[in-house]
Design brief:
The complex is a heterodimer of chains A (314) and B (226).
Chain A (H helix, E strand, L loop, with lengths): L2 H19 L1 H38 L2 E5 L5 H13 L3 E7 L1 H11 L4 H8 L7 E7 L6 H8 L1 H4 L7 E2 L1 H46 L1 H9 L4 H37 L10 H10 L1 H28 L6
Antiparallel strand pairs in A: 1-3, 1-4, 2-3
Chain B lengths: L1 E9 L5 E10 L4 E5 L6 H8 L7 E6 L2 E2 L8 H7 E4 L11 H10 L5 H14 L15 H13 L5 E5 L7 H16 L3 E6 L2 H7 L2 E6 L2 E6 L7
Parallel strand pairs in B: 3-8, 3-9, 6-7, 7-8
Antiparallel strand pairs in B: 1-2, 1-4, 4-5, 9-10
Helix pairs in contact in B: 3-4, 3-5, 4-5, 5-6
Classes of the chains: A alpha+beta (314), B alpha/beta (226).
């Protein structure tokens, strides 16, 4: 076997041995890394869940334009074509008087009195155009168009905007933004703290094995042969922490799913979060391990760097 | 093989460890360096293994100019030079075999090569039957011979022994010296520092005396009064 391959496997083997020997030292490092990775995971899932909630509410928002009964097909087509030309219009749907009546009957099928009353008159409901915007926060353009004199003439009533929903969306958007920022700060702070703790763990391990390391250096071990096992050791911290963190989240979801049988808990849709987590389980686990190993390897590399510097000053 | 040209090492402005030391050692030579404590013997050896860097002057070992040596080449240099220390520097949690094998492991030897090479080297230093012993179970002389085995297992061209007998009684000290002579006969250049005049006189080799950081004398077949 090639010397480099042998050395590579020896580095991994030594790293594993050292990890086992240092197990008690490693507990603190692993614990704080679990917290870091759990925050990462929670931010990710919360972010996705809020985004989903916003999306769902956004999908329901629309603008209804009520048309007078005497509107001609030509006028209607002009109106719809003009609306289609506006940037923020996602979809348009024309609801005729008959369809409106059907819908009304359907919605009030349990109210016999109402149904009776409506069947005895001419269809009082107006035809309408339902507009779904791309971005509910930017419907001013649509508003402006509908306010135009010649367009206003075609309308039997003021257009209805789902204004209350817009407010809800604003609130959720703000909350999402806040959680995203708080998550980022949390991740940064805890990543830093775990790096510090791993850093100290490795310094301690170096101190414990300083004689061995000195001998290695005097015998001509390369820097990577000395540093490698420490990097391997901390990468194991990362793997274990990721596994613990994901397991922790998993059990949390299991508990919460049974505790909150209802599908949603205010703005936080547990069901969705659970599904999101389950669908991406392996990707999440892989990413968590990647992040954990990266944090570990970076701190070990920094921790060993000073030790490995040669005295080359004259 | 080893060339020092006006090598000076100062730690700060007032303390001069080595002062314009020039010397030349031929391949396969056995050279003894003597001098009082603090004379600069250890500094000289540390410059050769590049644990320290000279302040001025030129060092060339085996064709390698130390001024042109990059940091990442230092491990490669150390693999070419075997070093034996007064305090042995063995790993206490490894047995004799493992301590010697360690020198081969860190440079990427395969297990089969290690199984083949280590017993032969232990045979040279007379410890073949103690391969499984832990360092704690050995006498000082035996431990030093393990250290020598470790230093020569990669067949370096140069062996540096810094006071290898300093912690040993006369009988064990002589055992260690005999091993060094044997290695020298196989063709390795040996640099030995010692305080022990008896050893110097018995060996009858080239002796370089260092005093106050300078080469005070450099004589072949030297003998000294006690």
């Amino acid at each position: 076997m090639n010397h480099k391959v042998i050395t590579f496997f020896r580095i991994i083997k030594t790293g594993l041995q050292n990890f086992i020997r240092n197990a008690t030292l490693a507990i603190a490092a692993i614990a704080v890394m679990v917290i870091t990775l759990t925050i990462v995971l929670f931010s990710l899932i919360a972010n996705a869940t809020f985004a989903n909630t916003v999306q769902q509410i956004t999908d329901r928002i629309d603008v209804s334009v009520y048309l007078i009964d005497t509107v001609t097909v030509q006028q209607r087509d002009t109106l719809m074509n003009d609306l289609k030309g506006l940037g923020n219009v996602k979809s348009l749907e024309f609801v005729s008087k008959d369809q409106a009546l059907e819908l009304y009957k359907e919605q009030n099928k349990n109210n016999v009195d109402l149904l009776l009353a409506i069947s005895q008159t001419d269809n009082p409901l107006p035809a309408s155009v339902q507009i779904k915007p791309w971005d509910p926060n930017k419907i001013q353009e649509i508003k402006d168009y509908l306010e135009k004199e010649e367009i206003k003439k075609l309308q039997s009533d003021e257009p209805s905007y789902s204004g209350d929903r817009k407010e809800a969306i604003d609130k959720i958007s703000a909350a999402t933004k806040f959680f995203r920022q708080a998550g980022l700060v949390g991740v940064a702070v805890f990543a830093f703290v775990s790096m510090l703790i791993i850093f100290n763990t490795i310094r301690m391990a170096i101190f414990n094995r300083r004689d061995e390391l000195t001998i290695m250096r005097l015998l001509g071990a390369s820097n990577w042969y000395i540093r490698g096992p420490f990097v391997v050791e901390t990468m194991i911290y990362g793997i274990i922490s990721a596994a613990v963190s994901v397991a922790l989240c998993n059990s949390l979801f299991v508990i919460s799913a049974s505790a909150f049988d209802a599908s949603s808990l205010g703005l936080l849709d547990i069901q969705f979060a659970n599904q999101y987590f389950a669908d991406r389980f392996w990707n999440i686990l892989g990413a968590q391990m990647g992040i954990g190993m990266l944090i570990g390897a970076a701190s070990a590399t920094i921790a060993t760097r000073r030790y490995l510097k040669f005295k080359t000053t004259k | 093989m080893i060339l020092l040209d006006r090598v000076t090492k100062t730690y700060n402005k007032t303390s001069v460890a080595l002062d314009r030391v020039s010397l030349h050692v031929e391949p396969k030579e056995f050279v003894i360096i003597i001098g009082k404590s603090g004379a600069g013997k250890s500094t000289l050896l540390k410059l050769l293994t590049r644990e320290e860097r000279q302040t001025s002057g030129k060092i060339v070992v085996g064709g390698l100019d130390y001024d042109k040596l990059k940091d990442r080449e230092i491990p490669l240099l150390r693999r070419k030079i075997g070093v034996v220390f007064q305090d042995f520097k063995l790993l206490p949690n490894k047995n004799v075999f493992e301590n010697v094998a360690f020198a081969l492991e860190i440079v990427g030897y395969g297990n089969r090569e290690i199984q083949h090479t280590v017993p032969r080297v232990l045979d040279i230093v007379g410890l073949k039957d103690k391969a499984k012993r832990m360092p704690m179970e050995l006498s000082g002389g035996e431990r030093q011979r393990v250290a020598i085995a470790r230093a020569i297992v990669r067949q370096p061209k140069i062996l540096i022994a810094d006071e290898p007998t300093g912690n040993l009684d006369p009988k064990h000290a002589w055992d260690v010296i005999k091993v060094l002579e044997k290695i020298n006969r196989y063709g390795t250049t040996v640099l030995l520092t010692t305080h022990n005049i008896e050893i110097v006189n018995k060996l009858k080799r080239r002796v370089i005396t260092i005093d106050g950081g300078k080469v005070a004398s450099d004589r072949a077949n030297a003998e000294y009064k006690r």
